[in-house]
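Handout, section 4.2: multi-component inputs.
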Amino acid sequence: AQSVTQLDSQVPVFEEAPVELRCNYSSSVSVYLFWYVQYPNQGLQLLLKYLSGSTLVKGINGFEAEFNKSQTSFHLRKPSVHISDTAEYFCAVSMNYGGSQGNLIFGKGTKLSVKP
Amino acid sequence: GAGVSQSPSNKVTEKGKDVELRCDPISGHTALYWYRQRLGQGLEFLIYFQGNSAPDKSGLPSDRFSAERTGESVSTLTIQRTQQEDSAVYLCASRQGILSSYGYTFGSGTRLTVV
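Output:
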């Protein structure tokens, strides 16, 4: 079985500061990894995904994440946050065995609050 | 359509009543998923459709929950005899193909409140 752990339920940060949102996963098979963002009263929007290849992936809005297989982590980072980045961020994993139905297993989310 | 559309956006119902939630996926997206998001919780998988068949219903929490899909189009999630613990945001997502490497596109959700 797979699981996703987001270690921080809430992360407050000042505008223009760097931020890291942590995500760890467990799986007995190879996985794909995703980060989604949910703005208030909206659905989830894909920020970025890791499928294969380079372990550093860049997404929208200046976010990036690094896949670390040995630490089973996929932490999300942004060097300088804006007020508009205030949202909830979800890490998700799906199994990679080709042709799978690809259920996404989500973490419980991290609420990022950017203060002026 | 341009995105995944869900209706209604908000639903308040009395305990014991039945409700029906609707999801219109992106045209051509073969896979469709329902998730439930309770307050302060992550997303809980409910059911997956590939076309109009549901190979995985393992997430449906009880037999009060059912879902169907017409072809590769609209899906409805029905909750019978609603209970207060059913209060949540119900999210629908669709995906272009069967490979798990494709990302999901989510709708804005239906916020269900059972009073």
